[in-house]
Amino acid sequence: MTLKLGIIGTNWITKMLVEAAHESQAYQLTAVYSRRAESGEAFAKDFGEVAVYTDLAAFYESGIEVVYIASPNSLHYEQTLQAIAHDLHVIVEKSAFSNTKEYEAVYSALREHPNVRLFEAARHVHQANFKAIEAKVAEMAHISGATLVYEKYSSRFDDYLAGKEPNVLTREFSAGALTDLGVYPLYAAIKLFGMPKESHYFATPLRNGADGRGIVILRYADFDVTIQFGKGANSYLHSEILGMRDTIVIDSIAELGEVIYKDGAGNDTEISTPAPANPMVPEMQVFAAIINDPVGQDATYRELLTLSQRVNIVLTNLRQDAGIIFPADK
Known about the structure:
With 330 residues, this protein is α/β, with parallel strands linked by helices. The protein has 2 domains: 119 residues, NAD(P)-binding Rossmann-like Domain (Rossmann fold, 3-Layer(aba) Sandwich), CATH 3.40.50; 155 residues, Dihydrodipicolinate Reductase, domain 2 (2-Layer Sandwich). The chain is built from 10 helices and 14 strands. Strand 11 and strand 12 form a beta hairpin. The N and C termini lie far apart (42 Å). The mean pLDDT is 97.
């Protein structure tokens, strides 16, 4: 069954998702929503006959079955609630919602619309190389700790330095380094190790009160996970998961290009396979399978929804620990 897809947001990540959706052969883009018609039309022209809307209600009533929401973070909540009210399945870009209060309200809406499925687009945890990491972690006799790194100079950071206020670096849009980049290693940590007992965030603030980079410490019963991320510098450090003598070395916890298992006795084994050209294809295949077989795939769906909720809880706790307040929190 080919699902009719609508998208909100016309940036590069939306284009990548639509291409992945088409490559999966499970979706067909049929509608684009943009506040400006010219932006929507410029995006749609690459995908054939696609309707463009500047009215959100008309977009939701256009016959689409799945909506992908890639607007600024602070808009996800209301747009998701509206989609659920129209009985549309929702794929929302991470970070999904600003705080636990919003997530709880969305969860309540899902209970009122039991046929709707909600997904957070955390593409890396669906990739084959992440699953290889999971399998190897399960085999390791002991976990001593981990360091997960994702620090990239943002294309918007020059604008910030020039005195502008890019959406991805402002609290007004529920944004900053933690919710934009830190969410990748945080998702990985919680997927691999579960909920931490404690979480602490040492943030480097920007002049507007948002976080530009930071260090997160997740405390588990027998080990700690350190997460380093930021948008104002480039780091070339690998990520590592430490056993005792053995170690898993990951080139990038978000991109997952190469994963090496070192047994500590001089034997290095590559456990990764070539990454897909479009890293969003695996997640789009998973989402379509769940939508098309909601009963058979219910356990998988509940696991993903629980993971998303846990990430939201820890993200909220980390911001509170660092004293970062979003307007959506009030």
